[in-house]
């Protein structure tokens, strides 16, 4: 059997007793009544001075234990910590005990030990992991046909997180046909930035037609949206906000959240500079697909498509007058979006890779013939070339059910 470790407070008590030591190592006192046997007597087990010293240190350990657990709780659960800190400051102004140096050392040692399990040392928040290495590896392994999206997302997020004092929140706008990987990358980003992934209290997902279905209630939606963003940032300094179907958002909703994405000037207000905003949209898909088709017809590999070449075409399409929030909001004209991330249309061999991943995720064997059959069930466009999957990889995981034993 392994040894059972002592709880932290008890361990501190034992350590202090060892440091203080009993007279000659003869054990623990039986009680204060044995502290002296006469005026100035030193023949008892413990003298008065020794007893008072132990009493004082044990009191310090008790207080240290309380502070230790408060400290550790605040590392994980932040609610109520500010109030406790204020009370502590007020109480420390008057007479009372002060945390001994050895106690401070123990706090650092124990918090470091705890962070080894909670992964909270680098960020100071156990909910945040910021695993960019894992993000890059998973994008390379699981995101197919999107060399531009992989590069832009990893570079943008890594640079943002490494900046000690960003001037504004990071704003990324994902564009492309449905099924090309926009939601997939958003979920993957949440999974690698936060311990609890998309379910983290630091992550908020808004779906336009689900959360904001009626334009007649747009004023109410604006108030609710601003409140949710503010409360999330108060709870998590590094927050992630995902807006799916962003082109269907009312333009006044986009303008309402504009201050959260703008440059930060007022130090008296809540600081949003550590926030990340993702907008997912089908807008620009036609421009992206035309570029990919032109490259294919010219016999050039899609990997030759550069961000500089595609971003200009994408921006022009987004600025065209249309019935969408992007065209009418101030996000574009005020350059609040840091990166437009294009998702290219997926070809037959990309769909096969998605099918392979779906088989592996469910723990089933597959054959190349089965992958071809799954991809063959998809609709490909244009009509002449049948080059791009009209649905991307969407519904691939459902279609493999036809091929399972």
UniProtKB/TrEMBL annotation:
Signal peptide as annotated in the record: 1-27
Localisation per UniProt entry: Cytoplasm; Endoplasmic reticulum lumen
Classification via Gene3D superfamilies: P-loop containing nucleotide triphosphate hydrolases (3.40.50.300)
Domain spans labelled Torsin-1A C-terminal: 346-403
InterPro entries on file: ClpA/B, P-loop_NTPase, TOR1A_C, Torsin
GO molecular function per UniProt: ATP binding; ATP hydrolysis activity
Keywords on record: ATP-binding, Cytoplasm, Endoplasmic reticulum, Glycoprotein, Nucleotide-binding, Signal
Cell cycle found in the keyword field: no
Main location as per UniProt: cytoplasm
One Pfam family recorded for the sequence: TOR1A_C
Family per record: Belongs to the ClpA/ClpB family. Torsin subfamily.
Stated name of the protein: Torsin-3A
Organism, as annotated: Patagioenas fasciata monilis
